What we know:
Blueprint: H1 12-22, H2 28-52, H3 57-63, H4 67-74, H5 78-81, H6 86-97, H7 105-122, H8 124-128, H9 132-140, H10 145-165, E1 168-169, E2 172-173, H11 180-189, H12 200-207, H13 220-231, H14 239-248, H15 250-265, H16 272-282, H17 284-287, H18 291-307, H19 312-333, H20 349-356, H21 367-382, H22 389-401, H23 403-415, H24 420-431, H25 437-458, H26 469-477, H27 481-497, H28 499-516, H29 519-536, H30 541-555
Antiparallel strand pairs: 1-2
Helix pairs in contact: 1-4, 2-6, 6-7, 10-12, 12-14, 13-15, 14-15, 15-16, 15-18, 16-19, 20-21, 21-24, 23-24, 23-27, 24-25, 25-27, 26-27, 27-28, 27-29, 28-30, 29-30
Amino acid sequence: MAQDTTVPTLDFKYWLDKAVEWGQATTLETQKDVCLHLPQLQEFLQQTYETLKHMNSIVAIQQFPLIGQLLGRLCWNPFVIGYDESQKTLMWCLCCLYSSEPQNPVELKANSWIRSLLCHLLSSSKWESNEAETSTFISALGYTSADYYCHLVENIVSSLVTELRGNQFNGLTVQGSVPASRVNAVSLFCLPLITLPDVTPLLETLLLYHGGSSKEILSSQFLEAVNDAFLKKKISLSESAVLSLWLRHLPSLENATLHVLDQLVSIQMNSLEEVASVIKDSFLPQAASHPAIFRIVNEIFKNALLETDGTPEVMTIIQVFTQLFVQVLQNENKQHKFPLKAYFPHHYQPLVVALLRCPFESPATCWSQHLTHISNMVKALVEDTNISSSDLLEVWFLVACFGEWLDIAAEQLLKAAVEPDALLWLLAFYYCPQTKNLQRIQTMAEARAVYNHLIMLFNATTLSVRDLQAAVNSITDTEQCYTQHLTTHLLTNFLLFSSGGHMIAQEFISHITETTDRSKEVRSLLIRTAYRINQNGEENQKTVKLVNELLQKLNV
């Protein structure tokens, strides 16, 4: 037996003969022989890996034709895989044999066989159903089966993480890094294990790993599976890992954005706090601090808005996302990470700066002046004779994203002594940007008529629905839908902020929604108003109470 332990380096035939002789170590004699040879076997496996990692899979099979049979047999020997680091070394050897780009049916079949071996090595359920000797072996080590497999997975993950991180310094790949094909193979092997908590460190290490190749080295299946598990809350990942996932795999970012839209559109919004909570939880606003992600998410939102004809729910989601993004951006700007132009590269920067300004960071008495400044800049841009339809759409979407300023404009028209034309023009542009100047003049005239009517009634302490009938008629009679939207906005604010409006709010809202099918639009305006009051810290409980009553009525 002593002579048997002295073997030449990389003698595959010797070790294959031994593996055949041992089988699954079912007799006492074979178990003793396995134990005697385990140190030499582990050294052999380590030398094998050091040799294989410098070859591609085709060359490895050609040079060592017996390697597949040997590894396959050793993977089923409980004494071998339970010894020290043999488990990890076997796995790395299998990774080296995996073809990242299989060219024929033989390589495809080999890949499938390797995946099954990896699943076998890491799956306790398969081992639990193995021969009774496995349980006996584990018990002899002083472990329960659950403890043994738990520690085994932890150790393997720890070894892989150490090896991958050991080839990087400050995020840069150094010489001697793990070959891209092997990293790709490891990402594939993680597929059946993604939701195991013990595997999370390996997932994050892979997501943060960047080799020297300009091409993506991780499997697209792996990236899709990790993103799907993250969206379904099956796994938790660090912010840096999620950011890296979305930066390196555009489909995952698109799916994450559409997932949030679907999630929010499918529920009935009762408060913007609820919407904000869902969006924050998605990690999109935080990830959007990277300009590339912000621009992509913004483009997806814009397309969704156009495809849904500007539905109020989608518009509200976009506006809340923008508010949350601005909060993150303000914190990031303290570190001066990215210039503002990186987020809005094609927009007039003074307009961007004006829209980014948080309303509640300045006194309410300054709002109308700031809104007039915004309106004048937008008007100068859209009335430029050289502006294209696509540029016009970009200006409109930028303004629409910062809808809080538009809501304040509609509110200021009724609550403050302002020059109305600039604010009315801004609202008219928001509700129909594609109109020509003559059409916008007509819209302005109709909006001004409604505004004058409401101002005349604003201080009245006693009102009836009939007193507002003229404004309602302007909604139902005009063929211009955008005038109807603008009028609805003004009417809703009148009901909320005038003392007489409070008295008839419920009856009048019922009249609007029954005759014009504007319940979703009114609901959106109401929840935005309640959110703005709460954000501003206003002690206007009467208005908040009225908003809640109106929302309950719309829910019936």
